[in-house]
Design brief:
The mean pLDDT is 84. Helix 4 crosses helix 7. The chain has a 3-stranded parallel beta sheet, sandwiched between helices. A 3-stranded antiparallel beta sheet has the order 6-7-8. A two-stranded parallel sheet has the order 1-2. It has 8 helices and 8 strands. The chain starts with a helix and ends with a strand. The protein is α/β, with parallel strands linked by helices. Strand 7 and strand 8 form a beta hairpin.
């Protein structure tokens, strides 16, 4: 509401989750959840968004997500503000390809105000994020990442040991991060 009160030319649109504090405001629009990346990409193409938000709570579930919103916003020429958590922390270069915000509302408001106030920064973020996704998500690059990923898996087999009491230890679990790096992890249920 603060943003709408200060900027008469701003319209807020949400997809999926309703922003209860904005319901009834004449410049607030809500759209039902859109299933599927292709459908969401089509939806974005029909909007005139200058700024896109991707707030996520810091949780193991959200940390396991991909950076789809970053890629979709870049492709749709939308300057994005993202939660400063994985997967965005690995993908977004703060101030260059997007803005990262912590969980506090003030952090989000400051970044929204910053983008509203600077069409130059919005343009810079859009240009840089488009270049970034072309470079990192080009089919040849992604194919090479998969090849390298699968090669490392074959070189480092997973070893899983389960004791009689149900405790387990796994060595060599593999996680491919958004920036293409591979992390080998050891998980022990006792810790």
């Amino acid at each position: 509401s603060e943003i709408l009160d200060r900027h008469s030319d701003v319209v807020v649109e949400t997809v999926g989750q309703i922003s209860k504090g904005l319901v009834g405001h004449p410049r607030y629009r809500h759209f039902e959840e859109i299933r599927g990346v292709d459908e969401f990409a089509k939806f974005l193409g029909g909007r005139d968004w200058k700024i896109g938000l991707s707030p996520l709570h810091d949780s193991p579930f959200n940390a396991s997500k991909t950076d789809n919103k970053y890629r979709l916003y870049a492709a749709a020429s939308i300057a994005g503000i993202y939660s400063d958590i994985e997967p965005y922390r690995d993908s977004v270069e703060d101030g260059k390809t997007g803005l990262l915000a912590d969980a506090k509302a003030e952090s989000w408001i400051r970044r929204i105000e910053r983008l509203i106030g600077s069409s130059e920064l919005r343009s810079k973020i859009v240009e840089n994020s488009k270049l970034d996704i072309r470079k990192r998500y080009d089919s040849r690059e992604v194919s090479m990442q998969y090849y390298n990923f699968l090669s490392k898996i074959l070189e480092a087999p997973t070893i899983l040991a389960v004791s009689a009491d149900g405790r387990y230890k796994a060595d060599g679990l593999v996680n491919l991060s958004a920036n293409g790096t591979i992390k080998l992890k050891t998980i022990d249920s006792r810790s």
